[in-house]
Amino acid sequence: MSTGKINVTADNIFPIIKKFLYSDHEIFLRELISNAVDATTKLKQLSRMGEAKGELGDLTIKVEIDEANKQLRIIDRGVGMTAEEVDQYINQVAFSGAEDFLKKYEGKLDGADIIGHFGLGFYSAFMVASKVEIKTRSFKAESNEAVHWICEGNPEFNLEIVEQEDRGTEIILHISEDSEEFLKDSRIGELLDKYAKFMQVPIQFGTREETVTEGEGDDAKEEKVTVPHIVNNTEPAWTKSPSELGEDDYKQFYRELYPMTFEEPLFHIHLNVDYPFDLTGILFFPRIKPNMEIQKNKIQLYQSQVFVTDHVEGIVPDFLTLLHGVIDSKDIPLNVSRSYLQNDHNVRKISSHITKKVADKLEELFKADREDFAQKWNDIKVIIEYGMLSEEKFFDRSKKFALMVNSDNEKFTIDEYLEKVKENQVDKNGETIVLYAANKEAQHSFISKAKGKGYDVVILDSPLTSHYVQKLESAYEKVKFKRVDADTIDKLIEKDEEISSALSDKQREELKEAMEANVDKAKFTVRLENMDSSELPLTITVPEFMRRMKEMQMTGGGMMMGELPESYELIVNTNHPLASKILEAEGDFKSNLIKHATDLAMLQQNLLHGEALTNFIHRSVDSL
């Protein structure tokens, strides 16, 4: 037996590991199993090259818990190590300048950063273990000679030559008192499911019961047998060629990724690139309703089938974080922070390529079966609108397949729709006015007024609508979007013709004063308009600019102007008989008349609630 000192320039390596890696201490299991997978994969490669002789046998990696002795073991039958290799790979830790590095970046790095920067994958074991043992025999050993290495969380180690029948490596972690959660089957099972679900070598964790059928026909009987519990799928769908997979295979893989999700995805995009960078993966379009109940962090990032993270913001374009699925690339480092990934040249190229592939797929689906694409539009429009707002290249591509749906449920591309309305919906300034509604039912009366004038109305009901119409207005010359309840229909699309008022200037002034005296001036701005006598006497509108600003603030955009107040315009039709009636009325009757008419206008805009609604109902009943 020999003893020695781990060759590091900072003797306090172990306190540093525990201090700086503790917040991410579960990562130790990924690191140790990744090492076992690497050792096994290397053996298979050497065998194919003829450098490793003999049968390889069962290469399953085993994870075992010995709760009584407070031990966790990771066992592989890979290449193993000689004494010289243990000295090279375990005892020589590249940790030069560690203290200066940590002082410089303290508070800016997480555990994975430090592991990746210094190659400390194996030493992450000391985050949870007070002592670590390695028992290893190299595939090159001609006898049963093996190495036994022991370290108790300080730079001192013991190393002795022992006998071991099988090649490979066993890592034994003596779990610390403050980390005994890692002696629980449920906790290790959870981590294996998170980090090792798709690793390339079978991983066994305990056993499970399986029902098998013995015999045939009338003699057949079912028996329960105990079999190894393999926790991972070594050949997940994204590692295969698209030609090998059918639609059911993709759906099965989706259920494998998200076992608690019961809705099937709308469609998928299979990524398969080997030049100029390595990229494989499958992205799924989930159903996203207009209320935007979005679950991000559903894309899982892998490096050679080893889980890296499911926080992919900045790694893939932001709008694609709404998708589900897997991205795998050998060009993505395993142990670095997201800030590093976001600035990595390969990652930026991968991000651009994914955006292009998504646009290609959407355009392909649109061209192949426009009717089917249109049926899915309501479920995917938030993702597409989000992409059009955040990625200029995606916007240019998406104009070919982004749809506009009118109140009659007819669907057009943006260019098709602008062509449809360009003759009839051009105002006196030569601008094409696109009328839209956010809710077909709630704004039915306004839509009806517009259609009565021969105008068309599109339904834009996503939470991104205010941003989206702003983007379209900037992209298309002399095009304006106006919501149907933003003003009277004649003001939304102003023509040259004018309507005269039945009231004199003095009567108009009296009417305005009477209205202002009986409404909440902090909430309503009274405006008199000369309209057709068949139009409603009072209409409440929401000015387009203020409403857009409020909606954009709510979704994280627009000018930050503090809490914008509720602001409405109360438009009085001077040519409606009620205007003259209000002028002729006196006292309480006048006030009640104005109040009741205003309540009717508020009811039209769904603004009448609570006590105000109750009082309105009682007044209406009394008038009957």
Q: Characteristics of this structure?
A:
Ribosomal Protein S5, domain 2; elongated; Heat Shock Protein 90; nucleotide-binding; 22 strands; alpha+beta; ATP-binding; five-stranded mixed beta sheet; 20 helices; Rossmann fold; about 625 residues; nine-stranded mixed beta sheet
Describe this structure in words.
- The protein is α+β, with helices and mostly antiparallel strands.
- 37% of the residues lie in helices and 21% in strands.
- It has 20 helices and 22 strands.
- The strands form 5 sheets. It has a 9-stranded mixed β-sheet with strand order 1-6-5-4-7-3-2-8-9, covered by helices on one side.
- It starts with a strand and ends with a helix.
**In angstroms, what is the radius of gyration?**
35 Å
Instruction: Indicate the overall shape.
Output: elongated
- Sheet with the most strands: spatial strand order: 1-6-5-4-7-3-2-8-9
Helix percent band:
25-40%
Distance between the termini: 105 Å
Low-confidence stretches: 94-102, 108-119, 558-564
Summarize the biggest pleated sheet: 9 strands, mixed
- Quaternary structure state of the chains depicted: single chain
CATH architecture title of the largest domain: 2-Layer Sandwich
